[in-house]
Amino acid sequence: MVSDLFAQNGVRYIHQERSLYRNIVVTEDSNRRCMRFTITSRIGQNQSCRFLKNAQELVFPYAKMTLSSLLVQDNPERILIVGLGGGTLPDTYSSLFPEAEIIISEIDEAVFRVARDYFGFRETAKIKVDIGDARVYIKRAGLRGEKFDLVILDAFNGEYIPEHLMTAEFLEEVKMLLPDDGMVIANTFSTSRLNAAESNTYQSVFGEFFNIRMSGTGNRVIVASMQPLPDRNTLDERAPEFKRKLTPFGMDVTRFPQYMSRDVNWDTSQRILTDQYSPANLINN
Amino acid sequence: MVLAFIAGFIIMSIELLGGRILAPYFGSSIYVWGSVITVFMLSLSVGYLTGGKLSLHNPNLVTYGTFFGGAAVLLIPLILWANPIMETLFLQIEDPRYGSLVVSMILFFIPTAILGMIAPYSVRLLVQSTHSSGHVAGKLYFISTLGSALGTLATSFYLVLWFEVNQILITMFITLVAAGCAAILTGK
Hints:
The structure holds 2 protein chains of 2 kinds.
Chain A: H1 2-7, E1 12-18, E2 23-28, E3 32-38, E4 46-51, H2 61-67, E5 78-82, H3 88-96, E6 101-106, H4 109-118, E7 127-131, H5 134-143, E8 150-153, H6 168-176, E9 183-189, H7 195-206, E10 210-213, E11 219-225, H8 232-246, E12 260-261, H9 280-284
Parallel strand pairs in A: 5-6, 5-8, 6-7, 8-9
Antiparallel strand pairs in A: 1-2, 2-3, 3-4, 9-11, 10-11, 10-12
Helix pairs in contact in A: 5-6, 6-7
Chain B: H1 2-26, H2 30-54, H3 61-92, H4 96-126, H5 130-162, H6 165-187
Helix pairs in contact in B: 1-2, 1-3, 1-4, 1-5, 1-6, 2-4, 3-4, 3-6, 4-5
């Protein structure tokens, strides 16, 4: 309950609205401002947070894990991000690559407004938000022959990732958008019971991928590339040149290669998720 | 009564699968669900009217059985050709709201309308006298709506966890054919 938070550690309740899809709650404490989705009566997790004193510093480990993918593929010119949240990833990539064209596909117009009104997110000539279902956007973009050097899948509906954005057919549609040196990053959960099914699904479409996990977070980040994955030595060699660039975001990228695992350490017999079979929410509960 | 239960179960099961079938092409925005529900309501209402009308002319179990068979046959396009149909309409219609509405009509309208004919026809078959007609109708709607409730529950809680969408639809096809045969044979 939000009122429980009120009583704890001085969290202020800044804004709440009910969109077509979910409740969106914005809270703030002495340190940071956060956006949260809740569609059940359980306390929802925070979707997106910004430090009050330093808006650039990344709050969540998953965002840092996402950025560490620059060691795999650098300098994206065209980026598609699925799921806006508070706008952390678009803003971060935009400051790293000011000339990059960034399109964000977000289904919920209210999230866009909250990000704009409470998290300082702005559309610019280079950053555009497309309101609608990402599956539809990606399908149409594929038909138009569009390419994105980087696709980041960060959609979350309050409970989990929408089921039609987890299937092999969807990932094939994403793959169509990638040029020869394209890369796709997906933010999912390491603790979910779907972990094996998801991993197998990504593997069936992209082959080997990096599974980035860290202690202290329930997220895991999948990094799949159209090129063969660099080995550990290559990652370690590349890291120092990125260290200076990424330090403003609160991360030491030289520490990340150790978390970027290629090991297949999940149950490979788990059925992959397809449009015919994707009972994500049921498996999770 | 059993047949009415089956019809109720299957109607809701298809409706639930409807959103899942449409999602890969039209997303799962609120209007996609709106389209599915609209089409189901519309087709059921047409089915009720038609079923009622048909019950005026020599109501019998053989005709009743063909409703089940007919619905089964009209599920075939959904099972076999859903993807090509959705693909074509996705390409033709830019706006996903109208796209999902048109696709829902094409895929779900006729089979659901036929299934809708079952309830009023059942009433006519079961009613013995004007005096008990309300009571019969009540029992029938109880059974068929119970079927709907269980169809909703079973599909969303369990069937989608155990089976692929097409597997569930094929099972429904077989059940409808079996039910239709049972009715026709009993009628003869």
